[in-house]
Prior knowledge:
The protein is mostly helical. Helices cover about 35% and strands about 0% of the residues.
Amino acid sequence: KWVNREISNFDYLIQLNTMAGRTYNDLAQYPVFPWILRDYTSEELDLNNPAVFRDLSKPIGVVNEKNAKTVKDRYNFEDPLGIVDKFHYGTHYSNAAGVMHYLIRVEPFTTLHIQLQSGRFDCADRQFHSIPATWQALMDNPNDVKELIPEFFYFPEFLENQNGFNLGQLQISKEVVNNVILPKWAHSPEDFIYKHRKALESEYVSAHLHEWIDLIFGYKQRGPAAVEALNVFY
């Protein structure tokens, strides 16, 4: 059905996540969706321009070419005791802390986050406060390899601090962390979700989505293909 364009990219990804044993009922196996855009700074989002899209054939940790050397060096490091298997990334593209990070403004994830942080909110600089800044951090830091969750494509409320939680303020700019800062091309949380979902269903993503699926659900998860794709996780 997906090949024949009878179901959407969104539906296909949800089905794959379900078949892979991922579920909304388990934060450690939460559905995983890809970062699909790389342009979070333009005034307008041009979905006819391939340059606005992330390279879906590469793991998020090496979408920025500059990180590839660090990642390869980590893999080539020999454990002197021979206990630890080789890996490119010591963290994972999907984990419970990452889900709570994105959904901190909505319950029950707020409470779960507070429990994880020993009874209080984590420091403001580590909170999810800006989509452009989150993307930039991924590009700058090969240790941050979080992909997205499905909510980025249908749930505008998670981008707003509707419950008025005190999430603190950033250390350097003293900016108060409140609603999530959106890309310039999005005029509201609803507009972001609308355009982001449109990007997911675009011609470019439809033609390249299988490359990302190979990394997460397919033959590039393990073995020689995973090594070659810089896609081995601890």
